[in-house]
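Can anyone check this?
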Amino acid sequence: MTEKRFPLSKARLEAICAEHPTPFHLYDEAAIRENARGLKKAFAVLGDGFKEFFAVKALPNPFILKILAAEGFGADASSLPEIALALKAGIGGEDIMFSSNDTPQAEFAAALRAGAIVNLDDISHIESLAAAGGIPELVCCRYNPGALKQGNAIIGKPEEAKYGFTRGQLLEGYRGLEAGGAKRFGLHTMVASNELDPEYFIETGRLLFELVAELSEKIGIRFEFVNLGGGIGIPYRPEQTAVPLARVAAGLKSAYDEIIVPAGLSPLKTYIECGRVVTGPYGYLVSRVIHMKDTYRKYVGLDASMANLMRPALYGAYHHITVLGKEEAEPMETYDVTGSLCENNDKFAIGRRLPAVEVGDLVAIHDSGAHGHAMGFNYNGKLRSAEFLLREDGSVVEIRRAETMDDYFSTLDFARLDSFEAGERHGR
């Protein structure tokens, strides 16, 4: 079981909302730091070669990245803006892992300028990378194991996924990279998302270790690291339990000692690129009830929508909901908890048992610290919300302001619209 508790009292949250209107995302710095240190401690058994590259896509805010950089984390970036965010947070060089797919050449060039580790997604990208600035000394390739490895509902079956090299392509690809001047090599895979079975990650590590041994023998190159990807899930539901990271680390160490050491391939660094398990449980979407509706079902209407948190609509995902001030009250009613988009799947919960809810109640939607604000959008002209950080000293600071209508219209040229209308009137 996982306890779902919001870190502030209703009175404290109401005081914050008096200055900052809902909806907004709130992140708990102390909890994020404690969790980051716990992750490093769990994987310390893998030695000094272990490193976590935080998946910027999960929570692309430089304040959060700076906190994690201070805890010794790197950054896993997938685009030019994500590289820029990492650099703004003081993360650079080989502390950035650039893992992208269908990559524009300009983004390869930016990654090379930043000194990032480039993780290639396809054999055809070798030529594109060379044209973007040359083959760097250190390069990595992403492996897609196909039917050898089972995926999950979020990322799909590996053999149907768009990501990665086949086994045969890796042999050809690494030979080509070495011929192009690469001297240091990494191997990466990522085949599941939000997975809670610890054995899954141990099996992934074993698969990569065995592949490193095979490729090293067949090609004659030395691998510097393996990157096991991310995908470690979190217990969104109270009845679920967190992945035992120490168990994962111990299993990886055992596989390493069994495969890598006897093959004479040690030391081999072990990297991961988790996002969700680092910040996910320590973010909350705070919203206020603005309507109650009773038709064929009972509805709780919030001032937030799936533009603020789209996981429930996109995946049918569960996010726990706390009604502030009613944490100890018995669930008395069954509601659909909705937003105001013109889409019927704009629902944070369907048939959810909650305490009796009233207009004006504040609710906290849990586990929005990864893939929450990051997946926001502007459909229906909805504006992205602010982000706040609950500091270790108890203060609350704004780390991203809410969008305004001026922001929304900033890419439109209304002056040209006026001249366009004039031209239409004159038959131009």
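Reply from J.R.: I decoded it. The chain has two domains: 29-278, 281-409.
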